[in-house]
Amino acid sequence: MSNRWDGIDEVVAVADTGTFVAAAKRLGTSTSHVSRAVARLEQGLGAQFFHRTTRAVSLTDTGRTLVDQFRRLIAERDEAIAMLDLQGEPQGHLRITCPTALGERFVAPIVRAYVQEYPKLSVDLDLSNRVVELVSEGYDLAIRTGTLPDSRLIRTQIATRGIVTCASPAYLAAHGTPETVDDLEAHDCIPATLDMWRYLVDGEVRTVRPRGRWRCSNGTAVFDAAMAGIGLCQLPEFYVSRAIAEGSLVEVLAAFRPEDDPIWAVYPQRRHLLPKVQRLIEKLRRELVPAMARG
């Protein structure tokens, strides 16, 4: 007697590839097997998953709802099997979310090399500044920065990033160089995503609300504005380190630099036991700091 859930792999493969032929190729089986497996599951659940024509296959509304559930069932099954061999090769599908700039510059190349190292592994890397719900949205791992709220999630620190206040030589020549945090009130600042800038004054954290004529939520655009002489910016060090070394930007208020922000790997409980997650965390811990130092 067949299992009630036989066919979910085939349904997900058809949904992912768009055809029964491609699904069969992905699963290493015949097209007729895929077709029969999908039909049996549809009959068993009393629901139609796909609209079928001679030219195309598309998900029904019911199919769209169920296929995400099927993905989670497959992932949980594969994770349970993987836990039997914690030293095994990373395999299966890995979903990661990471802030955009950190991901584009540093995390994506590391993850790309990781995928190339393990051919049985596939990855979905979501670069977004949105804080996703890892469990409900089906993510295995998040890369996050700064202070994190208490939650059911597990975290481990993989790196730190410095925070730097700087401006172009032209701006400083025209407006003067701030010597204290209070001097910022007399300067044009370029706010980014954070409403408050942080400093360390006499061992205590001091926050300042930056004010200026130009604001942008994108770090690269803020960097470009500072290079153009619009005002002072406060950005993660990896944005500005090369420009400071070349003299295109000048760090100010260095004596009041805040403590470095921690960079975290965050994951649901037990997920770190899976080789695909565990080994990526280890790789990020080894390679992320040197990558950021190279800029």
UniProtKB/TrEMBL annotation:
PROSITE patterns (UniProt xref): HTH_LYSR
Q: Which parts of the chain span the membrane according to its record? A: none
Domain HTH lysR-type, by residue range, is 12-60
Q: Which UniProt keywords apply?
A: DNA-binding, Transcription, Transcription regulation
InterPro entries listed in its UniProt record: LysR-type_TF_proteobact-type, LysR_HTH_N, LysR_subst-bd, WH-like_DNA-bd_sf, WH_DNA-bd_sf
Which family, according to the similarity comment?
Belongs to the LysR transcriptional regulatory family.
Write down the PANTHER family for this protein, in alphabetical order: HTH-TYPE TRANSCRIPTIONAL REGULATOR, TRANSCRIPTIONAL REGULATOR-RELATED
Name this polypeptide is given: LysR family transcriptional regulator
Species: Novosphingobium jiangmenense
